[in-house]
Amino acid sequence: MNVSSRLLVVSGLYITCLITANLIAVKIIALGDIFLPAAVIVFPFSYIFGDVLTEVYGFHWARRIIWLGFICNLIFVVFVALGQVLPGAPFWEGQGAYETILGYTPRILLASFLGYLVGEFVNSFIMAKLKLRTQGRYLWVRTIGSTLAGQGLDTSIFILVAFLGTPAFVPMMILYHWGSKVIIEAAATPLTYKLVNYLKKAEKSDYFDTSTNFSPFRL
């Protein structure tokens, strides 16, 4: 299994964006009368790097990195929870803040993990299939089209599983979250083009998933 240093860098950036988004999501920001989690500014970038992985290296590599991101996020959550239950020093006064910022309820965790896996795999699948359909042309159609589907499912699953039946649930939350993520990724399309073109030239790779098994569980 030949792994290039560039693939490792893109994978590291992808996972960093993922964990950062989950960490800062606790803060709610206000854009006029619209309230969104702070993660909305960084989570779309994980989709950008996911698009790059599929476009340059193929679905088979994207699939591995998606699962690696899931495992890394799970490890992060486990150690955060362990840090929460460990006895604090007598002079430690930040337990309440720690639990407020880093504490996750099982329902929120389930919503986050389900949304991530479904959204990322759908995003990568559509990227790979559209590349075959368009014969490698119209990259912007593939990136935006896959994001519309992937982010739509990710956002819907997360909000429905996390908040349905609670006072915090507002149906428009899904539209606001989804729309803001798609807008950010669309605005970053020129950056995606530059990164993809650079990697294709540097790696001498432009992978087409003509005979790929698209099962998310085939590693």
- Tell me the distance between the termini: 13 Å
Mean pLDDT: 89
Can you count the beta strands? Answer: 2
Strand count, sense and closure of the main sheet? 2 strands, antiparallel
Strand order, sheet with most strands: 1-2
- Compressed to H and E, one letter per element, the order equals HEEHHHHHHH
Count of discrete alpha- or pi-helical segments spanning 4 or more residues: 8
Label this structure with key terms.
219 residues, mainly alpha, two-stranded antiparallel sheet, 70% helix, 4% strand, globular
Report on this model:
The chain has eight helices and two strands; from the N terminus they run αββααααααα. Strands 1-2 form a two-stranded antiparallel ribbon. With 219 residues, it is mostly helical. The protein is globular, with a radius of gyration of 18 Å. 31% of the residues are buried. The two termini are 13 Å apart. The chain has helices at residues 5-24, 43-57, 59-85, 95-102, 106-133, 139-163, 172-187, 189-203; strands at 28-31, 34-37. It has one domain.
List the SSEs and their pairings.
Blueprint: H1 5-24, E1 28-31, E2 34-37, H2 43-57, H3 59-85, H4 95-102, H5 106-133, H6 139-163, H7 172-187, H8 189-203
Antiparallel strand pairs: 1-2
Subcellular location: Cell membrane
Function: Involved in the import of queuosine (Q) precursors, required for Q precursor salvage.
Membrane topology: Multi-pass membrane protein
